[in-house]
Amino acid sequence: MLVHICCSVDSHYFLQRLREDFPDERLVGFFYDPNIHPYSEYRLRLLDVKRSCEMLGVELIEGPYDYERWLNAVRGLENEPEKGARCSVCFDNRFEVSAQKARELGEARMTSTLLTSPKKSIEQLREAGERIAAREGVEFVTVDYRKGGGTQRQQEEAKKAGLYRQDYCGCLFGLTRQRAQQEVPADELYSPIHGKPLPGSIEERLSLYEKRRELEDKGQAYRIVRQKFLNWRLEFGWLKRKKTVVPAHFLPYSTMKRRYTSGRIEYEEEPGVFRFNREEIRFLTLARYNGLAGTGYESVAALVFDPPSFKTELRVRERLGGDLWDLSPLVVVDHPPEGKYEILMQARLWRDVREKLVPL
After folding, report:
1. Whether residues 338 and 238 fall in one domain
2. With pLDDT > 70 as the criterion, what percentage of the chain qualifies?
3. In total, how many domains does the chain have?
4. How far is CA 83 from CA 77, 120, 294, 324, in A?
5. In what side-by-side order are the strands of the sheet with 109-112?
6. Peptide bond between residue 38 and the one before it cis (omega within 30 degrees of 0)
7. Which of 179, 203, 223 is the last residue of a domain?
8. Span 71-126, pLDDT tens digits
9. pLDDT per position as a tens digit, 80-94
10. Domain residues for 55?
11. What is the mean pLDDT of the chain?
């Protein structure tokens, strides 16, 4: 039987129950989920599904990540709610490729771990699965492992196995709707130009779970703990002097009351640090920044495209007299600033939770 797999939390318990109910069936997992966005989240879920299948001794095949095909399939349905028309098209898309894979492998049956997801309609899945599987000459097996306390046991198994627990279905449109309802940024969609992991980002979680696999391969004990913290993202920002953009780098946790301000440099507060007369802003020369960060950047442009770690930049703020609650803007420029400047900057602050890996 080919088993379409959507995520490890749904598949881990589902595969165990399938083995009990179909002891004579060879189970083949098929991870085909081009709806998952962004790609780093796709990689993270696939990584954990691989781990789960290895624990259960189930063969796993990865399908293509044809995201553009999925986008074209759901075009015009972007604002549909969960369990609406977009989900129906999404199921059809994934079941079609899964049924074709089952036929290619010579499997007479197929099913999907989506059936055990509390957020999905079993009847909607059954109708789509049976209709599309029949088209390919394959039987779709509908099972309900939610009833009789199944959902609770599913969560217990996920916790016991230490599975990655994503907090959104997977698609771009479901994510943005959910984050809007929660009144928090859709941080999963932020992509800094330097491409380095930011605190609480998917890339940080992906790195953590990759390191977890390394520890498990070495047989080293560990714990994954959760930490509440104040998160920050710079959405955009520029600095201008005499209507000309000046290369500038905004340090983490820089915030302004309004997006735009203009003013002038008042005085040099200490060597390489200059006080602006608006929004508690301070300018740092690149030379001073290099000294505080222990770096050797030759230009601010190089710094923008390849900054040091987030922790390093927080230490720069601390060494300038900042504390844990300092949100004043710090702007790095190539040369000592003078005269008038305009600043446009928008940053987001919100309460967040991140995971940390603790080797034992």
Report:
1. yes
2. 100
3. 2
4. 12, 6, 52, 43
5. 59-62, 28-31, 2-5, 109-112, 139-140
6. yes
7. 179
8. 999 999 999 988 889 999 999 999 999 999 999 999 999 999 999 988 888 999 99
9. 988 889 999 999 999
10. 2-179
11. 95
CATH code where residue 99 lies:
3.40.50.620
Specify if 223 maps to a domain: no
Domain boundary among 135, 156, 179: 179
Helix (H) or strand (E) holding 235: strand 222-241
Q: What is the pLDDT of residues 304-359, one digit of tens each?
A: 999 999 999 999 999 999 888 899 999 999 999 999 999 999 999 999 999 999 99
Q: Token pair for residue 59? A: 């063969």
34 and 109 inside one domain: yes
> pTM of the prediction?
0.91
In a domain, 226, yes or no: no
State whether 52 and 143 are in the same domain.
Answer: yes
Could you tell me the two tokens for 269? 């507060």
Question: Which strand ranges, in their side-by-side order, compose the sheet holding 330-333?
Answer: 244-246, 222-241, 340-359, 260-270, 273-276, 282-285, 330-333, 249-250
| DSSP H or E segment with residue 42 | helix 39-56
CA 188, CA 242: separation in Å to the nearest integer?
36
Task: Let me know: does 161 contact 12? Beta carbons within 8 Å.
Answer: yes
* Residue type at 345 in one-letter notation: M
pLDDT average, residue stretch 140-151: 94
Q: How far is CA 244 from CA 235, 241, 255, 266, 282, in A?
A: 21, 5, 22, 20, 20
Q: Hey, how many other C-beta atoms are within 10 angstroms of the C-beta on 218?
A: 8
Q: Which residues contact 91 (CB under 8 A, 6 or more apart)?
A: 114, 124, 125, 128, 129
Q: Which of 318, 254, 330 is closest to 292 using CA atoms? A: 318
| Predicted pLDDT at 125 | 93
At residue 118, the pLDDT reads 83
Q: Is residue 211 in a domain?
A: no
Angle at 345 between CA 340 and CA 348, to 5 degrees: 150
Q: What is the pLDDT of residues 5-44, one digit of tens each?
A: 999 999 999 999 999 999 999 999 999 999 999 999 999 9
Give the pair of three-digit tokens for residue 209.
């779970």
